[in-house]
Amino acid sequence: MIHERKDLDVRPSRCRVALAAHRRSVHLVFRMLLCVFVAFGTGSLGFAGVAEEYQVKAAFFYHFARFIEWPAATFSSEDEPFRVCIVGKNPFEGELANLLSGKAVHNRSVILMPNVPDSQWDQCHVVFVGDVSADRVKTVTRAFKGKSVLTIGEREDFIRRGGVIRLFMQNNKVRFAINPQAAQQAQLHVSSKLLRLAKIEEP
After folding, report:
1. Which of 137, 153, 160, 173 could form a disulfide with 42 if both were Cys (CB 3.0 to 4.6 A apart)?
2. Is 180 helix (H, G, I), strand (E, B) or coil?
3. Is residue 20 part of a domain?
4. Counted domains in the chain
5. CA 121, CA 16: separation in Å to the nearest integer?
6. 18 within a domain of the structure (yes/no)
7. If DSSP states are collapsed to H, E and C, what string results for 191-202?
8. Quick check: is 39 in a domain?
């Protein structure tokens, strides 16, 4: 079942006005960041190419992690880094690595693990599932079922196969869908602010 959320108005002029009026609000700053990424990265003029699309998706990636909370028991120590893993083909071509460089998530340094082998999946806190087969998606989501891992993918059937967040294109803009049921099973607390910006999808 799919519940549509009202689209965020992403016209650049409205983004600028809203950002100036509400500079100190974390919620509205996040909304404005998404406005900027969508309006200038994926606006009505269309993409300059796939690379530009993944610049926007990389930005979304980082903010997903900021607006989702992991259980304290997920980490073995206070200084354990936050690990972002990529399973399958890495479509970001350095964009995600550049964006995460020097950043912190919930006061933890961030490590990007591209092309992570199956034997190291237990180290991941976020997993992006690249261009893989439906069977491979099912294997990945089953492996993380019940574990506090945020799974993100792009396949149309990603949420139906157990994923938490799906990135997709709509009207030449990057959108995202969230499966609250899968997030709850993973014991991930998704901010209501993030949910209001998402399409809610259930398997």
Report:
1. 173
2. helix
3. no
4. 1
5. 41
6. no
7. CHHHHHHCEEEC
8. no
- H-run or E-run covering 111: strand 108-113
One-letter amino acid for residue 145 of the chain: K
What is the C-alpha separation between 117 and 94, in angstroms, rounded? 19
The answer to whether 108 and 96 are in contact (CB under 8 A) is: no
Encode 43-65: b = buried (16+ Cβ within 10 Å), e = exposed: eeeebeeeeebbbbbbbbbbebb
Summarised one tens digit per residue, pLDDT across range 161-192 is 999 999 998 888 889 999 999 999 999 999 99
CATH number at residue 61: 3.40.50
Q: Hey, is 66 helix, strand or coil?
A: helix
Strands 150-153 and 199-201: unpaired
pLDDT tens for each residue of 143-160: 999 899 999 999 999 999
Residue 38 belongs to a domain? no
Q: Mention every residue, 6+ apart, whose C-beta is less than 8 A from residue 75.
A: 108
Q: Is residue 179 within 8 Å of 152, Cβ to Cβ?
A: no
Q: Which domain holds residue 53?
A: 49-201
Burial class (CB within 10 angstroms; exposed 0-12, middle 13-18, buried 19+) of 30: middle
